[in-house]
Amino acid sequence: MDTALNNRKMNTSQEDEYLMRILDKGIDDMEAGRELPLDEAFQKIRELRNRKKSARA
Known about the structure:
By secondary structure, the chain is an all-alpha fold. 86% of the residues lie in helices and 0% in strands. The N and C termini lie far apart (42 Å).
């Protein structure tokens, strides 16, 4: 039981570190002016979803 609990704590810690790195990178991108306008961002999301669906088919 202790091992499972320790593994979960470690996984949560790793997930937290990963999310913090993603947030930091996003903030860096915004500060450097590398973000997309909202409509372009949603268009990119649609394109990526379509590619993913096509790849599965």
